[in-house]
Amino acid sequence: MRIADYIRDIQDFPKEGVGFKDITPLLNDHAAMMEATKQLLALVGDKKVDRVVGMESRGYFFATLLAEKLGAGFVPVRKPGKLPFDTISQEYSLEYGTDILEMHVDAIKPGEKVLIHDDVLATGGTAEAVCKLVERLGGEIVQVNFLMELSFLHGRDKLAQYEVKSLMSY
User: Fold this and answer.
1) Which chain positions lie within coiled-coil regions (predicted)?
2) Structurally, what CATH architecture does the domain formed by 45-169 represent?
């Protein structure tokens, strides 16, 4: 089963000139979704993982499945004002301007082994910000993984100090 066959290209979304990789066909097919989860787990191998951190919102889908299969806790990362408890925040650069991500202050304990997951590695800004949040809480990043990578955007460069893996590269 080729996971790439379940990724739909949407042109000019969310704005003109952008080619969006839509994972909803993958999520709609149980067998494909389970195969993608199996392949993502294979990327992790036998690494010990205490927490799986997923980025809002499409990163949550597979991060929760990975956490369940790894026997780990799940940590959501969200935009400002969306988490109900005390948070730490990290600003990061976008193509035009900046944005902020937040995580609960008690989400990760010092020394815990952390897998960071998102659906797409594009420019790397979001993943880099999440790495900083995890490290500020004392977590040890064992891997940063993605369903797919847009290699022409060179996001991997911002994550050079981490082990980065993805199932597919465009």
Assistant:
1) none
2) 3-Layer(aba) Sandwich (3.40)
